[in-house]
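Suppose you are handed a protein chain with no further information: no name, no annotation, nothing but its sequence. What can you learn? This example shows the usual starting point.
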Amino acid sequence: TAFGVIDFRNGNDDIIWDNGTGGHAVLWQFSGSTLSAAVDPGGAMGPEWHVAATADFSGSGNAALLWENTSGQVVAWYYNGTALGSTAYVNGTVSPESKVVATGDFFQTGQAAALWEDGGGRLQDWLLNGPSIQSAQTVGQIGPEWHVAGVGEFNGISSGDATSDFVWVNTSNHVQIW
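A reasonable first move is to predict its three-dimensional structure. Written in structure tokens, the prediction is:
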């Protein structure tokens, strides 16, 4: 399954594939719209693991993957280009029904944070420093009929605030921006 898109320092967006049976990811690198390489960055997790997010969680310009297992444990894989640089368990867990619904610069640090949503619609964002949660904030909750549909810098257009905002959509297609 194609999981996400991120630049592994080749200047183009690359696609991360999760094998769907858990524990293995492959990277496709592109030159324009041409597939230039398929890279197996090494490392594997067990079948209970899946890719939860991909972003530059360190602010270094390098890509990272967050893996989540069925019991709510989280592991961070940090890359140096396409080579797997380091892996470590993150010092926090989430409920098994939680999932990353967005990544963005929610803390104005120049690095991505992960926005987790649980089964009841409650949100928490994590700013990581390596495998350590540097900051975690409970963001709020609207209700189970709402879900996060995307991230952007809607407030930053006119105010100079570069913090990422997120868009909520409910089952009646009403929209809110936080």
